[in-house]
Amino acid sequence: MGMQVTMIGTGYVGLVSGACFSEFGVDVTCVDKDRSKIDKLLAGEIPIFEPGLDRLVANNRKAGRLHFTTDLKDAVEDADVVFIAVGTPEQEDGSANLDYVFSAADEIAEAMRGYTVVVTKSTVPVGTGEQVRKRILAKNPDAEFDMASNPEFLREGSAIEDFMRPNRVVIGAHAKRAIKRMKELYRPLYLIEAPVLVTSIPAAELTKYAANAFLAVKITFANQIANLCEAVGADVHDVVRGMGLDNRIGRKFLHPGPGYGGSCFPKDTQALARTARENHEPVTLVEAVLEANDAQKLRMVDKIEAALGGSVEGMRIGVLGLTFKPNTDDMRDAPSLTIIPSLQKMGAEVIAYDPEGMEAATRMLEEVTFVESAYEACEEVDALVILTEWNQFRFMNLKRVKQAMRSREDGRYVFCDFRNIYEPDVMKKAGFRYTGVGR
Ligand SMILES: NC(=O)c1ccc[n+]([C@@H]2O[C@H](COP(=O)([O-])OP(=O)(O)OC[C@H]3O[C@@H](n4cnc5c(N)ncnc54)[C@H](O)[C@@H]3O)[C@@H](O)[C@H]2O)c1
Known about the structure:
By secondary structure, the protein is α/β, with parallel strands linked by helices. It folds into 2 domains: 4-199, Rossmann fold; 212-435, NAD(P)-binding Rossmann-like Domain (Rossmann fold, 3-Layer(aba) Sandwich), CATH 3.40.50.720. The protein has helices at 12-23, 35-42, 53-62, 72-77, 99-111, 128-139, 159-164, 176-185, 201-232, 236-244, 265-278, 284-307, 336-345, 358-364, 398-404, 424-429; strands spanning 4-8, 27-31, 66-69, 81-84, 116-120, 145-149, 169-173, 196-199, 316-320, 349-353, 369-370, 383-386, 413-417, 432-435. Helix 5 (99-111) runs parallel beside helix 6 (128-139) and helix 12 packs across helix 13 (336-345).
């Protein structure tokens, strides 16, 4: 008989990984306690925006390998491997909230029958695997199981490709039986020679945080170099290209912008900094990054203010892009959630458009006028601000943009491109008062 996998939590990670495992031919049941999510999936709808996911889910459901339910007990009973892929959001003090992980663990403990591998796929602080093991044993002393940690590295927007062709798979486990089962599950990836690293559980847990924090450091470094470029009159794109061509540095994640956001970097950097402090080994580099990233977001507000001649009061500002990056509808910790309210507080009126993020944005932003297209967001605005580099914003008809916008006293149009997708010289020639990041 083939492998039975159960995924607890059917969000960005649980749904994508569940669907991808079923594509490998494994029988997968995705569980969520959010009934509306499961109802949607059962009706053939996809609750999130992720390119290619609709087809993948539909195909595997049709093939009978992918199931959705709210009934955790039923889904766990016969599972060989149970993944915990629930949220681990940030708490007030910066630490990861493990309530969802622990409550899932308690339910698994009661439902488990026969030898099961329980895997944390959620991003969890070092030591969580051990805590989960103890909790399960406390609830069900006879449970026959082993723990594993299998952190997920997929990126929203290219999640399926990332899962199917990962740079690496990290499996933290101690028990031979668990390692064997986990390796078997990822066997389809051996063909493409994806490295599978087997480590201890704490090492796997920490790898995820270390990787995300390193990437956050890299982006923040590019942002600070960009800010320095502004002061000394260099183009940051020349600088980061010159840096990135050095193989030891690498070109990726050196693109300056309005500060990182999203469902992972902000909370994972916070949590790592906290874990490090608790263990009396502070990672001060990451602590500095947290501060710098907050400052970077607010710096964008200052730039808009400066571009408008010193004040945004009474100004209409059009914002293009609200999600933390393109190709997702995820609004969690997006820079727009800091920048827009700051502008409003200073008396600006904000008009916004995002191709996929507006439904979530309406719940997270107040008093914003949401419009249906990029050009509508240009209408009668005193400044246009690009916050997310959706492809459709890359080739705007600039004539049309200007016709819609209000010009400044000098006849120019304020254009703040915080993803550097337009060329400063071209924009200046076209009659814009152009502001990028580090150029
Ligand atoms: N989103 C990403 O890009 C990404 C990438 C890598 C790792 N991660 C990590 O993966 C984890 C999940 O992230 P996400 O973005 O998928 O979160 P999410 O909020 O999209 O999904 C979590 C789901 O779990 C469900 N849930 C919570 N408790 C449950 C329970 N007891 N039983 C059943 N369902 C339950 C929620 O209803 C929700 O649908 C987090 O730890 C995150 O840090 C996320």
